[in-house]
Structures are given as structure tokens and as C-alpha cells.
Amino acid sequence: MELRQIRYFIEVAERQHVTEAADHLNVAQSAVSYQITKLEEELGVKLLERVGRNIKVTQIGHVFLQYVKSALKTIEEAQEKIDEYLDPQAGTIKIGYPSSLARYWLPNVISAYKKDVPNVNFHLRQGSYAYLIDAVKNGEIDLAFLGPVPMKDPDIESKILFMENIVALLPSHHPMADRKSLLLSDLRTDSFVLFPKGYVLRKIAVDACREAGFEPNITSEGEDMDALKGLVSAGIGVSLLPESTFYDSIPRFTVKLQIELPKANRSVGVIIPKHRDIAPSERNFYHFLIQYFDRLNQYK
Fold first, then answer.
1. Residue 19 CB contacts under 8 Å (≥ 6 apart), including other chains
2. Which domains, ranges and CATH numbers included, belong to the chain?
3. Cβ–Cβ under 8 Å, residues 244 and 163
4. Core vs surface per residue 136-161: b (16+ CB within 10 A) or e
5. DSSP category for residue 171
6. Nearest by Cα to 65 from 15, 6, 111
7. In this structure, what are the phi and psi dihedrals at residue 190, rounded to the nearest 5 degrees?
8. Which among 84, 186, 243, 290 is most buried, taking Cβ atoms within 10 Å?
9. pTM of the entire predicted model
10. Tens of pLDDT along 149-185?
């Protein structure tokens, strides 16, 4: 069984047409038909059958297609890893990230790295807190930004890059909007707009309110950072959000206030697998992140 035969079979099976597959592969139609026939003879089954001018995948052909597509993807990924080892300055870095870090930190860090390593490529995947941890563990991605940083998981290596405050976002017509800061207990009678249950930023907000001596009255929820800010802007309620999500701008009709007591914050950092090697391009980026934020923290 040859890789060429598998590629030809996948192309014909998905297009259900030999001529179209041959055109896309840029080979002769007879070559495609010959290689697939050899593949069927080796396997001892019919993978494809002709229906008029088109091709239909047989029942066992569908089963075979599922497995060889997965196998071919693994082989291609293995080739990518080899290419990265040969030239880590031109590899592809797969990064997972939560929405709370997407607007400011992630673009700035990537931009800084591209100045030093212009030929490296980035593949970005947004996900929830739990998804990103699982994705690093199972090899779907090898590096992820997270906040807060999980420090006790035995299967991942974690590095805190910086700490950031959780701040209050209030509608501009709120009675405390003209202050520079507030006690979290000052908001005990307000309606809150937060992430749904299961989101780590909701837990941080609720825990902070409980430390201040009250249970927040959560009247609206949203899975998107901009949606929550929009709800506050519309006067639906107040929210508690990471300060870095406001570095670019503060939404219209809102004010951002520091929280004096209790001090709410979160760690922000990066995780990689502990028991699996990552590609040199990703390892280089990991070390760059540590040095980048070490320099930033020195100037604070």
C-alpha cells in the first residue's frame, strides 16, 4: 500500500469522479484508475464502484476512507514536525487562547516575536478554559495562554507570565460612576452581568463578591467578552472583568473602576505538555514569552 494510492483514493472518494480527481491531482486519469485498482487488489475488496459517469464509495470503502484520512493527517503532521526540527525559524506555532486575552496581549506578543522570527507562522485556536487544558494534554495543541494559570495539574507545565487586576465595569449613569475606585461591597445591591456557570472568570467574580460578604445578583449572562461589555453599556448591570480587556478602549457609556477591597486578581500565563516534547519552533516561542514578560515586569 503506497501513500500515492491512498491520496488518489481519498481524492476520488470525496469528489466521486475520477476525471475531476485526476485534474485536481494533475495526473492522468488512467494513472489514478490504475493505482486505485492496485490498491483494491492488495486489500481484496472493492472500495469504489461506477454508477453511470460517477463513482460511488462502497460500504467498506467508507470505513477505509475514514481511517486513511486520519492516518494521512497524522503522517502530514509528522512531516510538519520534521520540517520544524530542520528549521525551527520557519515552523508553525499552534496557540490556544481564551477570549479574554485575544484583543491585547496575544496580538502584541505575536507581533513582537515576528520581528525577531519573521518566517514563523501562527495557527490560533480560541477555546474555553477547560478545553484549552484538555487540548494541550491530548496533543491537539502544544501551547496555550490561560488565566488563571493551573499550577497543580501533573500533566502540564505551567508558567505565570504576569498578574492582573479584576476591575469593575459600571454604566456611566451609575451612582458611583464619578469615583476613581470602590469597595466591592458597594455593589451588593446591583445587578451583575457575568459569564455563565463553568466559566473561570465567573468563578473569580463570584468568589470576590463572597469575600466581600455578599452573593452577587446575576441577572444576565454572556459567553462573549464584548457581549458582557455591551450589556453594561446598555445599563443592564455591572460586571467584574480582567483589566487587560480594557487596554485598547473602554466601551461607550461605561466607566472602569479599580476595586480597593477585596483585591481581586488573576494570574495569566502559558501551559505546555509536561510529558511530551513540543516542536523547536514552539519551544523557542515559549522561552521568548518568558523573557518578554520578565522584561515587562521589571519596568512595572
1. 29
2. 3-86 (1.10.10.10), 88-300 (3.40.190.290)
3. no
4. bbeeebbbbbbbbbeeeeeebebbbb
5. E
6. 6
7. -85, 160
8. 84
9. 0.69
10. 999 899 999 999 999 999 999 999 999 999 999 999 9
